[in-house]
C-alpha cells in the first residue's frame, strides 16, 4: 500500500497527476465513443460507415488540445518562468519596505513545480543580516515562495566603495 493513498491539495496541482487523470478520462471517453460508433455501424452499416473515422478525428483533436495545455505548463516551468500568481512589482515593493534593507538587485522568481516557487535575491542591508533575512523570508512566505536564497551584503555607509558593485543592470536603490 502506498504511503500517500489519500489525494492531497498538492496532488491536485501536480502536473503528473493532472496528465494521468486526463489520460484516464480520455481513455474512458474514447471507449464510449468506440462502443457507440461500432454499435451504429453494426446496426446500420450503410448509413454510419464514417462514424469510426469521425469519432477518431474528434478524439484526436480533444487529445491534442488537452495535451497542449499540459505541455505548455511543463515548458513554462522548465524555462523557469515567473509564476503567474505572483505580482513581482508588488513583491519588490514589499521587500524594499523591510526594515534594514538598503538595496535589492538580481531578483529572480521562478516555479519549481505548480505551487512550488523559488526566489534568489541579493540584498544590501544595514543592521543584523540574520534578522533582516528572516523578515525577507517572512515576506516571501506571504507570496507562497517557500524556497528562498538570499545573498546579503553589509552596507556600512551609503556608497561604500569597499563593496564590489553588481555588474548586472537590475538594481533598485532605496532613498534614505
Descriptive overview:
With 176 residues, this protein is α+β, with helices and mostly antiparallel strands. It has 5 helices and 4 strands. The chain has a 4-stranded mixed sheet with strand order 3-2-1-4. Helix 5 links the parallel strand 2 (116-125) and strand 3 (145-154). Helix 2 (15-43) runs antiparallel to helix 3 (51-78). The longest helix has 29 residues, at 15-43. The chain starts with 8 loop residues before the first helix and ends with a strand.
Indicate how many domains the architecture comprises.
Answer: 2
Q: Helicity range of the residues?
A: 40-55%
The average pLDDT value, as a whole number, equals 82
Spatial sequence of strands, sheet with the most strands: 3-2-1-4
Number of helical elements: 5
Shape: rod-shaped
* Biggest sheet statistics: 4 strands, mixed
Q: What is the number of strand segments?
A: 4
For this structure, the quaternary state is single chain
| Distance between the amino and carboxyl termini | 60 Å
Q: Any idea what the radius of gyration is?
A: 26 Å
SSE topology string: HHHHEEHEE
Unreliable stretches (pLDDT < 50, length at least 5) are 1-8, 171-176
Considering the chains and any ligands shown, give keywords for the structure:
176 residues, 48% helix, 2 domains, disordered N terminus, 5 helices, Alpha-Beta Plaits, 20% strand, alpha+beta, single chain, four-stranded mixed β-sheet
Amino acid at each position: 500500500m502506498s504511503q500517500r493513498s489519500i489525494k492531497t491539495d498538492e496532488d491536485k496541482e501536480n502536473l503528473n497527476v493532472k496528465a494521468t487523470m486526463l489520460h484516464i478520462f480520455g481513455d474512458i471517453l474514447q471507449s464510449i465513443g468506440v462502443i457507440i460508433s461500432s454499435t451504429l455501424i453494426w446496426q446500420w452499416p450503410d448509413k454510419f460507415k464514417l462514424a469510426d473515422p469521425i469519432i477518431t478525428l474528434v478524439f484526436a483533436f480533444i487529445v491534442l488540445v488537452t495535451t497542449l495545455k499540459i505541455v505548455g505548463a511543463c515548458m513554462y516551468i522548465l524555462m523557469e518562468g515567473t509564476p503567474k500568481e505572483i505580482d513581482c512589482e508588488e513583491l519588490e515593493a514589499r521587500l524594499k519596505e523591510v526594515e534594514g534593507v538598503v538595496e535589492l538587485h538580481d531578483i529572480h522568481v521562478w516555479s519549481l513545480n505548480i505551487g512550488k516557487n523559488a526566489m534568489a535575491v541579493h540584498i544590501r542591508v544595514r543592521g543584523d543580516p540574520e534578522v533582516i533575512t528572516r523578515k525577507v523570508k517572512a515576506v516571501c512566505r506571504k507570496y507562497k515562495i517557500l524556497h528562498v536564497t538570499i545573498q546579503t551584503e553589509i552596507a556600512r555607509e551609503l556608497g561604500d566603495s569597499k563593496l564590489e558593485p553588481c555588474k548586472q543592470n537590475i538594481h533598485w536603490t532605496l532613498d534614505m
